[in-house]
Design a protein that fits this description.
Structural class: alpha+beta
Largest sheet: 6 strands, antiparallel
CATH architecture of one domain: Sandwich
Shape: extended
CATH class of one domain: Mainly Beta
Radius of gyration: 38 Å
CATH superfamily of one domain: Galactose-binding domain-like
Strand content: 25-35%
Oligomer: single chain
């Protein structure tokens, strides 16, 4: 792909080069809309709670008080069990553990008959499930909007273009509806929003189609991409439009009366929900069943086992909390009871202007703008650029008109990397503008932004006729860049191939994770087996030093190097044959450093010599005549410094490394050296002694006798203060 083009990098580490931050904050490291000091939930929230006036689309209340919850992560429908105070899957629903048959269930609703309606956006239909036996009563859709009315259609299987094999996905025609929200009216009718056509479809109590409308009336425009909605006690509909903070209010005739963005003006039209749900999906339940609940199991013999407590929240806590997936939320031991916290709201619009970006090239054709951003549902982000041959002051940049900025909306992007071409005219200087929009409940977030220059494509190798004229040259350069990037993507694996052979750069899975790991593959070339429970840094160092380790394998130096690569500290090895203290003729001297040759070295069982219980050892091999040599041969002790974070798993990995690095006939005892200095307990200065920090003396009733005891120094000697006289000012007791 060649040398990468120069780029201006803007992020929390390199700096954002911000000239204007209008309702945009960079306190968290990323560019976001500023927070508002209010706690009220936004009216146009994509969750469908309408500022707390209605239940979210993922929660529904049955006619008998059942609480249904849709786990968006797994597509599972859960029901609340008041006895165990947990959400459990609806076991009778077809599918694994209550999973809906569709690919993307997004909403729940209980109709007038008590049936559970499931909005399946993946299959673009609404399923009606009987709450009595969980039988599928019927479904709405999929439909196509043709000739002013919905027409039933069947999706076609999506085929893989190269092979023609079905991919498992479904393909819908361009005029197929896209249901996004449901609401039940007081008379039993069901309203469904169609975000693709900007319509609301009405169905009868038995799911029979009635009519459709777009809400346009007098000065109020028609609906634009309607999503979630709800109904008040009078049958008026309240519809959220994608990317707008205001909510459209539709009367019973299907006309938009007004658009409001605050909940205070319409709060009196709704019946207060029986369940409290936060904007993040947290469900709060306060009406707890009194008394304790226990589960009694039977053993294989049919006997009742001791009862097990089911409830995990203390009985004194008035509130129970569950996340959006139905998992219980617990407090800590100090504060076991949870309390509701205020939510966070954001500004609905913000602006970021960069400082002047100087390419240093006269008439520079700027290439691309690349951002790492996230645009949650209900938010919008746009990129705008302006160029000039002269450096402008901040006031002059602010005075630029809208037609002098080239705007590129970030569409169809949820999270990750987004790239767009700079369509501004050539110029040495460039200014970047990011336009943030949101509904108040969420905010776009830009983690990094890069502006690259100059634009160099394959057009410079083609005949000049293709680039004749400024507009033609700009279009052709951007057009040919599509193929340049496709070619670069195909060649990128070849250019990055050397990194796969570098132990310090090859892709590696994190500790304990499964999946592809080229570090294991690289180690397999030289017969090195790596444990996934080791950290990535340790495995990389081990593979990088493997050639040196193999040359030193079986030696003391190789063992120490192998262990040092894993632990990061220098170990010590004591070979037992070096501890022999034999008296040699004409060279020995009597003392505690000398030992006589005799059977007491091994203490084999021997009649009239070592036959008393407790003084002999049962040994089934070896020659007694060579015991003084065999007792110290082929044995060693490895001392490894270990801190407080050295766990049992690390010790097991260390023993595996020692077993792999040592000679097969040598027995090695691994000893961990903790930060201590204890005289008389196998102490070898410079080998197994470690000076610790913050050592404290032992105190009666505060310490347990053992290897970690540190005795205090002697007391201060008795001394008389100056001026004291014996017999007058002192009393001896």
């Amino acid at each position: 792909m060649g040398t990468p083009a120069p780029a201006f990098r803007m992020d929390a580490r390199a700096g954002w080069r911000a000239a204007v931050l209008d309702h945009v904050s960079q306190a968290s490291g990323a560019l976001r809309l500023s927070t508002l000091p209010v706690s009220a939930a936004p009216l146009g929230s994509p969750s469908g709670s309408f500022g707390g006036l209605s239940l979210p689309v993922t929660v529904a209340i049955g006619r008998a008080g059942e609480i249904y919850l849709l786990d968006r992560r797994s597509g599972t429908i859960l029901v609340y069990d008041a006895c165990s105070e947990t959400f459990v899957p609806v076991a009778c629903l077809p599918g694994a553990g209550g999973a809906v048959g569709g690919r993307d269930p997004v909403g729940l609703l209980v109709d007038c008959r008590g049936d559970l309606l499931v909005l399946d956006a993946g299959n673009r239909r609404i399923e009606a499930w009987s709450s009595a036996d969980w039988r599928l009563r019927g479904h709405l859709g999929a439909f196509a909007w043709r000739d002013g009315r919905p027409v039933a259609i069947r999706p076609k299987p999506e085929l893989d273009p190269p092979t023609g094999v079905p991919t498992g996905a479904q393909s819908f025609p361009a005029d197929a509806w896209m249901p996004a929200g449901m609401a039940m009216l007081p008379d039993g009718r069901v309203a469904v929003t169609d975000s693709r056509h900007g319509l609301i479809h009405l169905f009868g109590a038995r799911l029979r189609y009635l009519r459709s409308f777009d809400g346009a009336f007098e000065a109020q425009p028609a609906l634009a991409a309607p999503t979630v909605m709800t109904a008040d006690r009078d049958g008026w509909l309240y519809v959220v439009e994608d990317g707008k903070a205001a909510v459209a209010i539709i009367d019973r005739d299907g006309h938009i009366v007004e658009r409001v963005d605050t909940a205070d003006a319409i709060a009196g039209r709704f019946v207060k929900p029986v369940l409290a749900v936060d904007e993040d999906g947290t469900i709060w339940i306060s009406d707890r069943v009194s008394g304790d609940v226990c589960r009694v199991r039977r053993s294989c013999a049919g006997q009742c086992l001791p009862p097990e407590r089911v409830r995990l929240v203390p009985a004194g806590c008035p509130l129970l909390a569950f996340d959006a997936s139905g998992n219980a939320i617990f407090g800590d031991p100090r504060s076991p009871c949870l309390m509701r916290a205020d939510g966070t709201r954001y500004e609905t619009a913000g602006l970021f202007n960069s400082q002047t970006l100087d390419s240093g090239l006269s008439g520079c054709v700027w290439d691309t703008v690349e951002i790492d951003a996230a645009t949650p549902f209900g938010t919008r982000l746009s990129i705008a650029t302006a160029t000039s041959h002269f450096d402008l002051t901040p006031a002059e940049v602010d005075a630029l008109t809208q037609d002098q900025w080239t705007l590129s909306p970030v569409s169809g992007h949820m999270a990750g990397r987004f790239e767009c071409a700079v369509r501004s005219r050539p110029g040495r200087f460039l200014w970047l503008r990011l336009v943030f929009e949101g509904d108040g409940a969420a905010t776009p977030a830009v983690n990094a932004a890069s502006v690259r220059w100059p634009r160099e494509t394959s057009a410079r190798y083609l005949p000049a006729v293709f680039s004749e004229g400024a507009e033609s040259a700009d279009f052709f350069a951007r057009f040919i860049e599509i193929f340049d990037r496709a070619r670069a993507g195909a060649l990128e694996p070849l250019e990055t191939l050397p990194a796969y052979f570098d132990p310090l750069a090859t892709p590696a899975a994190e500790r304990g994770e499964a999946g592809a790991d080229f570090l294991d593959w690289l180690g397999g070339w030289i017969g090195l087996a790596l444990d996934r429970n080791w950290s990535v840094d340790r495995r990389r160092r081990l593979v990088a030093e493997a050639p040196a380790l193999f040359r030193l394998r079986g030696t003391v130096k190789g063992l120490k190097l192998h262990v040092a690569l894993y632990t990061g500290t220098e170990p010590q090895v004591i070979e037992h044959f070096r501890l022999r203290r034999w008296l040699s003729l004409d060279e020995g001297a009597l003392g505690d450093t000398a030992a006589l040759w005799g059977p007491e070295i091994v203490r084999r069982l021997q009649l009239d010599a070592y036959s008393e219980i407790g003084t002999f050892a049962l040994i089934d091999g070896g020659d007694p005549l060579t015991d003084p040599f065999d007792a110290f041969a082929h044995r060693a002790t490895l001392y490894v410094p270990a801190g407080s974070g050295f766990a049992d798993a690390d010790l097991a990995a260390l023993e595996a490394i020692v077993e792999m690095a040592k000679p097969a006939h040598v027995e090695i005892d691994v000893r961990l050296m903790r930060p201590r200095f204890v005289i008389g307990c196998d102490l070898v200065l410079g080998v197994n002694t470690v000076l610790g920090r913050d050592t404290k003396p032992v105190r009666i009733d505060e310490a347990t006798p053992g290897g970690e005891i540190l005795l205090d120094g002697p007391r201060r000697p008795f001394a008389l203060n100056p001026g004291l006289r014996i017999g007058r000012d002192t009393i001896l007791e």
